[in-house]
Amino acid sequence: MTASESLQHRWMKGHNTVTRQDTQTAIRRLNLGNIKQFQKSEKIKQVALMAIAVQSDPNDMVELKEIFQALDKDGNGCISFDEL
Question: What is the rounded end-to-end Cα distance, in angstroms, of the chain?
Answer without folding.
Answer: 44
